[in-house]
Fold Urea transporter.
Amino acid sequence: MTDVFSVSSKKMPAYFRAILHSYSMLFFSQHRGLAALLVVASFGRPWAGAAGLGAAALAVAGARLGGFRRDYTDLGAYSFNALLVGLALPLFLAPGWALGALVVVGAGLALLLSVALGGWLGGRGLPFLSLPFVLVMWLLLLGAGSWPALAPAEPGAYWLNDLYAVGGPRLVALASWAGDYPWPPLLATYLRALSAVLLQDSAWAGLLVAAGLLWQSRIAFSLSVLAFIGVEVIHALGGAASTPEAYNLGANYIVAAVAVGGVFVVPSLASYGWALLSLPVTAVLLGGLAPLLAKAGLPALSLPFCLTSLLFLYVLLLRETPGRWLVLVPMQRYSPEANLYAQLAQPPGASAGLGYVPLALPFLGAWRCTQGYTDGGPTHQGAWGQALDFAITDADGRTYHGAGQALSDYYCYNKPVLAPADGVVEEVVQHVEDNAIGEVNTRQNWGNTIVLRHAPGVYSQLSHLRAHSARVRPGDAVRRGDVLAACGSSGRSPEPHLHFQVQATPAIGSPTLAYPLAHFLESLAPCPCQPLGTEQLYYGAVPQLGSVVRTPPAQPQLSQALHLPPGYRLAVQLAAAPTAPPQQWEVFTDAYNARYLRCHQTGAVAYFEQDEGLFRFTAYYGPRQAWLYKFYLAAYWVPLVEAPLRAVPLPLTVVRSLWLGWLQDLVAPFYRFVRPTFELSRPATLPGLAGRPLPLRSRVVVAYWGRRRFVQEATLTVSEGALTALTVGQGPAALHLTFAAAI
C-alpha cells in the first residue's frame, strides 16, 4: 500500500490531485480514497457527475492560471464550490449546450467568489465554506429565466433517458432494481442524507459516501451518525410528521455538526456537545430562511450550514479566555483524528498558537522562584497574578550571606538581567533609587523597569532593577541573552529580587498573561547546586513556587546538525547502493511560515520546529515506508541542550494496527487507551570534541492494555556538527542511510 501511494504521489500531476481534493474537501478532507469514492458516487446522475467534474477541472485550471494561492489551489479549497455548482445545476435545468455554457460561467464565478471570500473571511480567522456555491446558484437561477435555451429539468424522465443512452435497457433495469431495493427505513434515510451532500438522492450513492467517510475519519463518521440521530429526536419531540428532506439532513445538519464538532474544533466530549447544540440552531435557521427565500424563488441550499458553522466558530474566537474544553484547531490538518492527536502530542507551550514566542529565563545560573502564578503571595494577585519573582539562594535556602543588612549581602543583587527573547525596547525606567533592606517604595511600585516588545500582543516586563543600571534605551533592538540591566531592589521590593511578567500591552504594570517559558531545568530540592540527575527538563511550562530553575547548557554539535533553514537540502543515500541516485530532501516554508522537509522523490512532507533548546517534528504527510518517515520517527523530539532525557508522547497516527487504530479513533475524543511514546538516549558523557560521532538512539513504543509494542528502533549519528547516518532496525533487515549536504 505504501509503495502505491509513493508512486501515485510522485507521478500524479498536481493538477489532477487538486481535482481529487475538490471532492474530498466537501468533507473537509485531503483523503484521496474518500475523494475517489465521491467521484464514483457523483456519477449516480451521469449528467450531474460530468458537470461537477468539468466545473472542478475548470476551477483548478483557472486558479493555477490566475496565479492565486497555490497551496489553496492544491488543497481543492478554490474549486470545491465550483464542483457543487456543477453538481447542482442539472437538478434545476435540462441537459444541453446551454447548460454546459452555464456550468462554465458558474465555475468561474465560484472560483472568483472563493478567492474573494477566502481573503475577507480568512483575515478574520473564518472559513468561507460553501457560501460561494450558494451565491452563485442564486445568481444563475435568477438569470436562467431570461434565457429560452435553458429549459427546466425533468428529473425522472431525463434520468431514465440518460441511463438508456449509456447502457440500454439492461442498465435501466439494474437502476430500477437498485431504486426499489428494500433498505431499512432509518438506514435508507441516513444514506440518502449523505448522498445529498453530492446533490444525489440515492441510498447506494450514500453507501459509497458513508464508506469513504468511515475510511477517512472514524470521528467524522460518528459525528454524522450522532447528528442524524439528534435530528430524528428533535423532530420527534417537536411533533413533526416526517424528518427533513434528504438534502437538508445531509448538507445542513450533518455537515454542520461535523464541522463544528470535529474539524474546526479539536474533537472532545465538549465538541460533541457543541455539535449537538448546532442541530437546533440549524433547524431554526432552516425553518426561518427557507420560506423567506422561497418567496423569491430561491432554494436555501447549504446556507443554514454556513451560518451555523460561522456563528459557532466566531463566538469561540471572541472568547477572552479560550479554556480547555472547546479548543479551536490552530493548524488545519484536514482530519479530525490528526487534529486531535497533534493537539495531544504537542508540548503545553505550543497551545499558545502560531504567534507563540519562545521565552527564556532572564538570568544566568540557578535562581529560585520566590513567588509564582497566583500562589497567595503578597503582590501577585488578581489581574497581576500571572507573574514570577526570582532570587538566588544558598544551600540553606537563604537569599543573602552575612547579616543581610546591606544590598550587597544578597546573592542576586547586581547580577545581570537578560532579554528573554529577541525584541525591541518599549519602556525604560532607571531613576528610582534602591530601597534599604526591609523598606518599600509603593509610590513607584514597579521601580526601575524595562519593557520589551517581542511580537504583536506579546510584551515582557522586568522590574525592581538596580538604579541607573540600564544598558538599553527605548527603540533599541535586542537579542535573546543580551544584558539589559542589573538586578536591584527598587519600587515595592523589601529585598533584592527580579520580577518578570508577560503582558499584552506595552504600559508598565499592565495586567499579566499566563505564558509558558520555552525550556528550563527545574529542581524542587533546597540546594540550587544539584547534580544533573535531580533536575527535570521542562518545555512550554511555568516554574513552580520554591523551585530552583536554570537555563540548560546548549549542545552545540546537535544544534548545528539540526539547524535546517529554508532552502537547505540533504542528499540521502542508501548505504548498500552508493552509486544509486540519492533522494533529495529540501526545507521549505508554508503560508504560515512553518518549516517542513519535503522529499522530492516520494512527495513526503514532515513539518518541524526548532529553537535554542529543542528540535521537534509536528506533523508528517506521506507514505509510511518513505525514508523521511523513518527520519521523522528517529528525530521526533531532540533536546538541543545537555539535560536529562524523558519519554514524550507521539501522535496516535503512528499506530500501525488497523483494528487498534480504528477502535482508538472511535473513542479518542473521550478516552485514550493507546499511548505511543518516543524515547531518546545518548551517551552519558557527551563527546568533548565536536568531531567525535554522537549517536542518538531512539525507540517508538506503543503501549495499550498493559502491552508494549516497538514500532521503530533507530540510531541517528551526528558528527562534526552534521547529520551523517541513520540506521533503522537491527540485523540483516536493518535500513542504513547516509546524509550529505546537497549543493
